[in-house]
Design a protein that fits this description.
Low-confidence stretches: 1-6
Radius of gyration: 16 Å
Helix content: 25-40%
Strand content: 25-35%
CATH class: Alpha Beta
Bound molecules: coenzyme A
CATH superfamily: Gcn5-related N-acetyltransferase (GNAT)
CATH topology: Aminopeptidase
Number of helices: 5
Number of strands: 9
CATH architecture: 3-Layer(aba) Sandwich
Strand order of the largest sheet: 1-2-3-4-5-6-7-9-8
Structural class: alpha+beta
Largest sheet: 9 strands, mixed
Order of helices and strands: EHEEHHEEEHEHEE
């Protein structure tokens, strides 16, 4: 079953000075504002991640810790790694994260989608997913899979993901 949800979470995009955006977050980053938070948020696939900050973010959503050296290797082997940052001129803060593995050509699998609980419910997760899929599609990838935790199936379903027959764990997205 494919459902579509076109309600946008973005209040405003292109809010940062272009040079600042490029310098701090790299090419292809996406800056935006959401309702109910005065901050500026940025999705970036090039801004370097601080592994300690990433570890802390993943702990805020209750996931068990993984050895940092192995996480570093996993990021190196991922085909796409995206951070969501709450912009600050001096110290942007990592508030969201996701990564994809795959062959880089045909198929990808999304892992570790997380938004810091303080910033959940603002629409950041939705923007992050949209950004990921756009970047994957731009590389020609047309089939994306993820393994959703039981409590978040609806989050993906509402964004148009096709659930595996039992609708309990796995979801697929097809470019068309
Ligand atoms: C799941 C998660 C990434 C969602 O991020 P978020 O920024 O809070 O989500 P958004 O604010 O973008 O929500 C978008 C929509 O999904 C809905 N939604 C968010 N979390 C949901 C959930 N757990 N179950 C059902 N719907 C959910 C929102 O109500 C919103 O609906 P709307 O478009 O009708 O307003 C975030 O809650 C999270 O990090 N959870 C803990 C880690 C986790 O479980 N990750 C997923 C691993 S598979």
């Amino acid at each position: 079953m494919i459902l579509r949800n076109n309600r946008s979470s973005i209040k405003q995009s292109n809010v940062l000075d272009k040079e600042v955006l490029l310098e701090k977050y790299g090419l292809d980053s996406f800056d935006f504002k959401v309702k109910n938070d005065e901050g500026i948020f940025v999705c970036s696939k090039f801004r370097e991640l601080d592994l300690i900050e990433l570890d802390q973010l993943l702990q805020t959503v209750g996931w068990s810790r993984r050895p940092m050296r192995r996480v570093k290797r996993a990021l190196e082997f991922s085909v796409l790694v995206v951070g969501v940052w709450r912009h600050d001129d001096k110290f942007p803060r990592l508030v969201g994260f996701a990564r994809c593995t795959g062959d880089g050509i045909l198929e990808a699998t999304i892992w570790d989608v997380a938004i810091n609980p303080v910033y959940q419910g603002l629409g950041l997760g939705k923007v992050l997913m949209k950004y990921l899929l756009k970047k994957l599609k731009a590389t020609g990838i047309s089939k994306v899979t993820l393994f959703a935790d039981a409590g978040v199936i609806k989050f993906y379903k509402n964004q148009g993901w096709t659930l595996e027959p039992k609708g309990t764990k796995c979801a697929f997205w097809y470019a068309n």
